[in-house]
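Deliverable D5.2: sample structural annotation.
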Amino acid sequence: MTVRVPRASRRTESGKSVFVTRSPDETEALGRRIARGLTVPSVVLLRGCLGTGKTTLARGIAVGLGLEDSSLVNSPSFTLVNIYQARHPIYHVDLYRLEGERDFRSVGIEDFFGEDGVTIIEWADRVPFAARSALAVDLDDAGGDTRIVTVSKPIRGKHKSLK
């Protein structure tokens, strides 16, 4: 089976690239493509409603970074962080269950922010500070299995610390 890797359907003036995926396989393939552009350390912020493909995209990114067993990638909703070993460590973070800055500080998630690998954060809209040098990816449901995926270039510079 051949899976089409989506091409950017358009680039906006702000440097964002917009992709349309029409299946989970295409969303995962887009993740592999995104991974090719990442350096270590990197932070990828995934934003989107429930069921828009954040974990599927994270799986593609992890495979693109060298993870051999894609079945290891699942949503860390209850554990908060899954760590996968590929060419570099991959920290897969899910902030869905965090309520605010206090929860964020208490679990030490900031310690995983691209220190020695790639940090992929689901529900990144819950990060209580501006994460600079992060690649932001917004996933929107366009009906059925179709997703509109907007990738924003990272803002350079260190992220604002909570400390």
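Annotation notes: The chain has one domain: 10-152. The radius of gyration is 15 Å.
The annotation will be released with the project's public dataset once the embargo ends.
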